[in-house]
Amino acid sequence: MTTHFEFWDYFIFIAYAVLILGVGLWVSRDKDGHQKNAEDYFLASKSLPWWAIGASLIAANISAEQFIGMSGSGFALGLAIASYEWMAAITLIIVGKYFLPIFIEKGLYTIPEFVEKRFSTNLKTILAVFWIALYVFVNLASVLYLGSLALETIMGIPMIYGVIGLALFAAAYSLYGGLSAVAWTDVIQVIFLVLGGLVTTYIALNTVSGGEGVISGIKTVYEATPERFAMIFDETNAYYDKLPGIGVLVGGMWVANLYYWGFNQYIIQRTLAAKSLKESQKGILLAAFLKLIIPVIVVVPGIAAYVMINDPEIMARLGDSALHNLPSLEQADKAYPWLLQFLPTGMKGVAFAALAAAIVSSLASMLNSTSTIFTMDIYKQYINPNASDKATVNVGRLSAAVALVIGGIMAPLLGGIDQAFQFIQEYTGIVSPGILAVFILGLFWKKTTNKAAIVGALVSIPIALYFKVAPNGWSTASIFVDVPFMDQMGYTLLLTMGVIALVSYMQHKGADDEKGIIITKESFKTSPLFNIGAFAVLLIVAALYASFWN
């Protein structure tokens, strides 16, 4: 067993990189006699089949923050972090049934475009600027940072070179080809992602069991640390502030998931590029089933790593190499990179290709969506409304490149954060409740007005910041001070919805808004296949929670 890459590891990883670049550039080429237009570049010509949509949704979602950040959280607090994945499966079903029909019927390119059609150009611009800032300064930067951390830990590559390498890899095909290149390469990426993740899980569990296999490994891990298999924490748990018990099931987790899967441009853009609504819903269903198995490849390895470093016999078997980059509760994000060091030759290349696939596919998705929002909602709105297709596509490429450069500059500045997955969730949670409130009421309550939506979006920020920064006892009259951030998101959502409802009522005295969306039963009619699949997902999630409640 060696901690270094050998010939076959490099061969497999380079072969993966060549394959992705080759496929990305091949699908990016201009067809004979046809130059890319906006629909080709930003929505893949609206030609994606269901299996490409499902694979691309998962590839865009699973990134370094899951492989490294969620494994780190698995190491520190256990299986409970899998709530983000298993509840996401239910969220995807909700998005497919209740959100997509409206989005696709309106022929959207971007989520801010929906805001303009439902509310106003002013609110659309506010949210477009917010999303661009969030993608560049939080999402792009964090994915580049965590990916470079893995390269540094496993291969000794200095972080700055890792940031540059990953950025250039993602840019090589995504900037030129647009969503088509991103989505079709994602089909390959997700195969590497799942298989490579399963390899790491297998090796970790097999090591824990002393070579007696996965089943024995699971049993050993469970017996060694049963408390790390509790899905619902009580208030005595040290990590209750991260995952506040039953509040995970009925509170802020819904805010995080509905915002992310329903109104996040770099996720929802794939579904908008479908051949049809039914094709898009089938893709959503595939992604929901894939989400059920993601904890096996991103959380279980972290728990296994915790058992390994606390078992002197296992550490002795691993030898001196086990002491290299050792994870701890204070540096939990080292857990997954640490495990990769001990994979056999060849398998290390496969697992590292999986990690690279997760990083690069997410980077490419964020770049494409950032450029889509900037080009369609800022450039064509305010700078050049009559831009030709060629100019539009070129601006999309240029804006993606600028976003990548800024994200690359910001990435090293994130050094020192631990449990990055939780970090990202917590800071995104400051703004997501207000945006979710605007969208939910805008979609399903016809009385919601533009003025109320703007007021609600702006007021939600100080509400969220109050919960986050108010010290314990700062306001003894309030029950909302010093609560877990997930509960903070739930309270912020409810208060923001109350503000929007109040302002809407004061403005129109209970009358419907002129831009209110008319909804009928037929709007949400789904196929028997979707209904059966959705029911199966619900049953599986219920069974998982029943099995690991506490």
TrEMBL record:
A Pfam family that the UniProt record links to this protein: SSF
Alphabetically ordered keywords of this record: Membrane, Transmembrane, Transmembrane helix
Gene3D superfamilies linked to this entry: Sodium/glucose cotransporter
Alphabetical list of PROSITE patterns matching this protein: NA_SOLUT_SYMP_3 (PS50283)
Domain of life, source organism: Bacteria
Compartment annotation: Membrane
GO cellular component: plasma membrane
Protein family membership: Belongs to the sodium:solute symporter (SSF) (TC 2.A.21) family.
Membrane topology value: Multi-pass membrane protein
InterPro entries: Na/Glc_symporter_sf, Na/solute_symporter
A GO MF term: D-glucose:sodium symporter activity
Transmembrane domains' residue ranges: 7-27, 48-64, 84-104, 125-147, 153-175, 187-205, 243-263, 284-309, 350-374, 395-415, 427-445, 452-469, 489-508, 529-548
Organism listed in the record: Mariniflexile fucanivorans
Protein name as it appears in the record: SSS family solute:Na+ symporter
